[in-house]
Amino acid sequence: MMRFIWPFIVFVGLAGFLYVGLGLNPHEVPSPLINKAAPAFNLTQLHDPSKQFTNEEMKGKVWLLNFWASWCAACQGEHPVLLALSRKNIVPIYGVDYKDNPMDGEGWLARNGGDPYTLIVTDPSGRLGIDYGVYGVPETYVIDKQGMIRYKQIGPVTNQNLRETILPLVAELQAK
Amino acid sequence: MKRLLIFLLCLLPVLAYANEARDMADDPVLEKRMIGLAQNLRCLVCQNESLASSHSGLAEDLRREVREQMTKGMTDQEIIDYLVSRYGDFVLFDPPVKRYTLVLWYGPFALLIIGLIGLVVQLRKRKKDIVEVQLSAEDAHRAADLLNSTKD
Question: Who among B47, B65, B84 is closest to A130 (CB)?
Fold first, then answer.
């Protein structure tokens, strides 16, 4: 009997590792930018290309920065969630129209039920995306009053991750 | 008329030159250096491909970024640091030895040593278990007899 104990323990250990591995998503690469200053930008606004917007203006506020694009399929699923969130006026959502033609971006918003963003900047070259370590849209950053990135949502914002992660974090950061 | 048309249509492929890959740098030395660096970097979109071979939009952007930083005179290490600061160690195909990569780097050797210790312990135990049978004088005599009888 005893001679089977060790192989059995090794088997259970290995099976445990593999079971945990099954639940991990290899596409979720943890961002090294968490708890670091959000990279500065000064970019053209989508609705009014004569104006610029810089994240310096957001000091003292908790806000969301959402990367989206008209060519991004997952963004369509996320859009109603963002629209509902913007109606609640809990936290301002700023958008980045990532690697997109501004005309396509405007058209996409009109077709998909409206504009949930307080303001949208354009990033046609994808350079801001590289600065923020974006590797697939949609991605959403929670940025605090000091301009630090506190959380990165990889993939669409859903009602579930809003309820469980993003909104509690926003409330906590706003209370600080 | 019809023949002329066919003839002209046959000439059409002459116009279809293959184009250079769009995102080539003008400087072949720099391009070579960029490819050399990008081969050791992971594309985050198609994770088992290197930045050098991937066709994803992000990989193209990152190659452009690397190329521009090289033209600016940044060293390879500076460019790697730049990418790691944005995408994490995950972009490196050759991850650095850190606290949380210790198992990755030294785990196999630890397993090898555990295996060797196990083997030695088992062999020693077996040596103890196998009792050498002493040949009695009578048996030795019989064996000698048998051996002698086969000789004849």
Answer: B65
0.90 surpassed by pTM: no
ipTM of the prediction? 0.78
Q: Which domains does chain A have, with CATH numbers?
A: 33-175 (3.40.30.10)
Q: Which of B84, B86, B89 lies closest to A131 in CB terms?
A: B86
B51, part of any domain: yes
Residue A125, chain B, CB below 8 Å: the answer is yes
In tens, the pLDDT along B13-27 reads 777 765 544 556 577
**DSSP for chain A?**
-GGGHHHHHHHHHHHHHHHHHHH--TT-PPPTTTTSBPPP-EEEBSS-TT-EEEGGGGTT--EEEEEE-TT-HHHHHHHHHHHHHHHHTSS-EEEEEET--HHHHHHHHHHTT----SEEEEETTSHHHHHTT--SS-EEEEE-TTSBEEEEEES---HHHIIIIIHHHHHHHHH-
Do B88 and A31 count as a contact with CB atoms less than 8 A apart?
yes
On whether residue B83 sits in a domain, the answer given is: yes
Q: Could you tell me the residue range of the domain that residue B118 belongs to?
A: 97-130
Q: Is A26 on the interface with B (CB under 8 A)?
A: yes
- Judged by CB atoms closer than 8 Å, whether chains meet at B86 and A126 is answered as no
Asked whether residue B55 falls in the same domain as residue B85, the answer is: yes
pLDDT band at B48 (very low <50, low <70, confident <90, very high): confident
Considering the domain architecture, whether residues B77 and B107 belong to the same structural domain is answered as no
What integer is the mean pLDDT of A46-53? 93
Query: CB A129 to CB B61 under 8 A?
Result: yes
Same domain, B57 and B114: no
Q: Quick one: B35 and B78 in the same domain?
A: yes
Residues of B in contact with A26 (CB under 8 A): 47
- Determine, for residues A29 and B87 on separate chains, whether the beta-carbon distance falls below 8 Å: yes
* Chain A: closest CA distance from residue B83 (Å): 8
Same domain, B102 and B87: no
Q: Cα distance from A25 to chain B (closest Cα, Å)? A: 12
